[in-house]
């Protein structure tokens, strides 16, 4: 009799901001950085204004694919240092908000057949 087992295995995934707060002058460029651990499918960025729900901005895959590509923001990933940056070019007062980074982990499936 053959028995086949499938198991979903997630690695220890985590993500956290490098700095809890950034303050800059208007019209300056700012990079917000998050460091991650584990295998990722993508990293997402969100913005939340006071008394509002979080708003999706964009995501980047480990391979560097950015979606959506038409945005007021840009993002970069460094797989070696396991860090991702959200860049706000020419920041305005209206960009003042809480920014969140979140990761979607890669789920690894193992397949084992017993006879």
Automatic annotation (TrEMBL):
A GO cellular component entry from the record: T cell receptor complex
Protein's name according to its UniProt entry: Ig-like domain-containing protein
Superkingdom assignment: Eukaryota
GO biological process, one term: adaptive immune response
Residue span(s) of domain Ig-like: 17-101
Organism: Seriola lalandi dorsalis
Keywords carried by this UniProt record: Adaptive immunity, Immunity, Immunoglobulin domain, Receptor, Signal, T cell receptor
Any Pfam family hit: V-set
InterPro entries in the cross-refs: Ig-like_dom, Ig-like_dom_sf, Ig-like_fold, Ig_sub, Ig_V-set, TCR_variable_region
